[in-house]
Amino acid sequence: MNLETFIYGYIPILIGLLGILVSIGFTRKNLNILNFISSIVISISNSLAIYMLISILAGAYPTFMPHALILISTILVLIQYLIKRRKLIG
Questions:
Q1: Among 25, 22, 74, 24, which Cα is nearest to 45's?
Q2: pLDDT < 70: residue spans in the chain
Q3: Nearest-angstrom CA–CA distance, 61 and 52
């Protein structure tokens, strides 16, 4: 296992799995339509990104699309966190 595989393959897979778990946790604690829809979008996009990354690790042609999907879904998780934080304060 070389360093490039670890940085561009395994770490994004872990970030994607963590994003799915955190998003579902936010939705379970504060069930509203915005959290529910964003949790579905995050889960689908991260699942697709993880599938693509596993395919790349198995020998498919590399692309940065799964990294972009994980970045967008991480931003959505941060938005979910800020909404949750604002509701706890206000």
A1: 74
A2: 88-90
A3: 10
